[in-house]
Amino acid sequence: MAHILFVASNATAIQFDFATELERIEAARKDAGGSFSLTARWSLSAEDLRQLLEEQQPDIVHLLSPGVNPHKHALMLDRAGRVEFVTPPAFAKVFETGKTPSLVVLNTCHSLRHAEAIVPHCGTVIAMRDVIYDTAAIEFANALYEGLAAGETVAAAFDQGRQAIGQLFPDQVKQPVLLSGTIDPENLTFAAVNRKPPVRTRGVGQASTSTTTRPVKVFCSYAHADDKFRAQLEKHLATLSLQEAIHVWHDRRIDAGQDWKSEIDQNLEEAQIILLLISADFMASRYCTGIEMKRALERQQGGTAHVIPILIRACDLDGAPFTALQWLPTGSKPVKSWTDRDEAWTNVAKGIRRVVASLGPGDSRAHLTR
After folding, report:
1. Residues sharing a CB contact under 8 Å with residue 200, sequence separation 6 or more, in sequence order
2. 38, 128, 293, 326: which is deepest, by most CB within 10 A?
3. Given 3.40.50.1460, 3.40.640.10, 2.60.120.380, 3.40.630.30, which CATH number is that of 2-180?
């Protein structure tokens, strides 16, 4: 009997649908007629995972940890609320155990370097090349384990997983990567052949309700001199937040002891909407313009984020790189210059609401990424 070890850690403030992914794997296990056993563990450190691998000696390790930073290429685990970044070499040491898993599935963004580090110690490894949407990752896992439960080889089940992604998100189909280590995935199976079509929780291609109910991540870039304006904006976005249409993040949410730069980088990469609160102080800040604004505009150009400049206070913006974008408030009148400040912020909030509504299921910016 093959043993699956399901490990999930989430040190972010975003709610990922780990429960559904576990339910899909559990359903596939039942379809396999007792060919699989399953153990689930949550919030493990790297050392915890190493010890668990030695104790459990699983055949399959399925790992979710949505904190891989594309710049640091570090897998993030958490334990008792503490964040741990695990580099690929350190991650490889975790798998230097007596019995190596036949299959490791790293179903999280930017996990290819970690896969390449551990593949000498494992039979076969599946990872995600770059960004994988939360919903796409669930569909991939669903089809992968349905294939394995039906007695398909890892290579065949992997192809089924890619096909499942392709029917929902064609732009995501090449994100899963299959690496061959000590076992040829063309010859690796975990269950007896069972040609009975599995009963899917929902058909491939059917829209997931979770994609419409999860909040859009909004990143707020501002100068600290404008903190009172940032606070006013957040109050006027409260209705959208209460409706769970958005989740607003800014650097005031960084807790004591956290790596502030890593937190900003991570949340800037995860955001679907990036707000630039423009003022003379913002334009004078090297961090606001040289790092946050620069990366925001790169993501806007690449189609992975929607950037909204909000004019807070009047300043000289001739030649600014974001002047071609649609501004708020309407008419580009600075918020501070409005006689009725609430009216100005209501105009801004309604503009943001329209953008949130425009990010439909077919737009990659509307999807949470791991």
Report:
1. 142, 146
2. 128
3. 3.40.50.1460
